[in-house]
Amino acid sequence: MNAAKIREKVAFSILGLITLFVVAPILLVILYILKNGISTISWEFVTQAPRNGMKEGGIFPAIVGTIVLIIGAMLFSLPVGVLAAIHLVEYARDNFFTRLIKLSVVNLSGIPSIVYGLFGFTLFVVFLKLGTSILAGSLTLAIMSLPVIITATKEALESVPASFREISLSLGATRWQTVRYCVLPYALPGILTGTVLILSRAAGETAPILFTVAAFYLPRLPRTVFDQVMALPYHLYVISTQVPNMPLKLSFATAFVLIALVFLMNLVSIILRAHFRKKKLW
Amino acid sequence: MGGPRKISEYVIESWIKLSGLLVVIFVFLIFLFLLRDSLSLFGVYPLGQFLFGRNWLPISEPPKFGVVPLVLGSIYVTAGAIIICVPVGVGTAMFIDEVAPKSLKHILKSLVEILTSIPSVVLGFIGIVWLSPFLKNTFGLPTGMCGLTGSLLLAFMALPTIISISEDALVSVPRAYKEAAFGLGATRWQTLWRVVLPSAASGIIAGVMLGIGRVIGETMVVMMVTGNSPVIPKSILQPLRTLTATIAGEMGETVVGSDHYFALFAVGLVLFIITFIINFLADAFLRRARK
Known about the structure:
The complex is a heterodimer.
Chain A: H1 2-37, H2 43-47, E1 50-51, E2 56-57, H3 60-91, H4 96-110, H5 113-127, H6 134-158, H7 162-170, H8 175-203, H9 232-242, H10 248-279
Antiparallel strand pairs in A: 1-2
Helix pairs in contact in A: 1-10, 3-6, 3-8, 4-6, 5-6, 6-8, 7-8, 8-10, 9-10
Chain B: H1 3-44, H2 47-52, E1 56-57, E2 64-65, H3 68-99, H4 102-116, H5 120-139, H6 147-171, H7 175-183, H8 188-199, H9 201-217, H10 220-225, H11 243-250, H12 259-290
Antiparallel strand pairs in B: 1-2
């Protein structure tokens, strides 16, 4: 018995060490970027265009580009994703078509981001002749975000108690009225928090926008959806690998802004969740 | 109920159905477009030479599009990453589930969640400025831009997937199993190791499969740190190049409609098929775990 107790202590200590080994690098990575990036961050850096072959000035066009892209992606993927999830949870019967949709969602979520990039290029840029543009890039990001939005929405819908639907239906409401007035309002918090989280991931993606929208160096803001834009993750890739003699501090500062943007969106999602949880009525 | 309401309801319900259909259409379109452009290659370049060719020399004369070095590059990097992250990830999941007190559990889970939101390009950047010089100096490697650097970073990136799915699997083991083991006088460790872990095996395998899928498909990190050398790697300590990095790195230099362009789509199709199989298996294991 005693030996077993000792073995337990040893085993648990090893598990603890392993966990430390996982957690410490996460903190180190963030602190490393913070420490090396923060000294270069200034008002000019986040509000001005790059100058002198990107070696001076700021990254304003890349920040705007990334925000434009994720808004564009959301405009498309949120309605389609939410409606598709409503179909799966509220309407679909267990038949071949439903299983096909579910299989497709699983499959979409597993496709590598670079394959989305290839697909976006051949369909939107070449076949539909949208050119390398905000539209092509947003649509590519949107399709990539779709499976995650569907999964988040499904979970949110499924967490609404069945009795809500039964009561509404028993009062003579149609199925859509039930979904619209008795299910969606209560699932909305889950859908919103999930969406913000997914968009924060999309903001950090590079591979899907590589050939569909991202501009190497374009120090002005886009005018139409058919323009190219710079984007933060691609900009970081470019200045840290493609431009010789680039001051390292600019890469650190760009990484800092990218991480800050992503974390800010995560924070919004957490606050939303906390806010709605307080209001939860059942 | 009035006419207009019925019509609007019909319209919205059609949209709902259409959206479900769209998801299927997208998968179909992705496959179709990859296949279409790949077939354009196989019209001029034999499929056998593509699949079994040992040289990837897209701009030599005549060009060679042998995918073997790229597939091996992906396999090396992925195998390295999985060997590192599976024991570490499952160990962490065990710690979070069984050992950590509730408050610590919450903090650990949030930290792992933070890791998912660090963009891959940032990790690639850290690979360039810190990890690869570090590995080069510590282990006296000829270059830090090699498979191992990629494997380490990818292992790091795959951790959240493996930890969270393994943790789910451990949590969902019925309480009665544990109680029975405790009742027989087993310690918490014995219970965890001999009862809970084997019962959670299906779920953990699913997590590992999803992790593999993620690692094989990751692009930016491998493009930035593995040295981009499309030759058959002899070891993980050499520069190599994966399927993903080849597409990302060469697409910008090709002319739309050229053989090289179509060859990159064929590489994409290979990648699509590999990840499709892996995710299909992962889903099968997940479903088995839920039963």
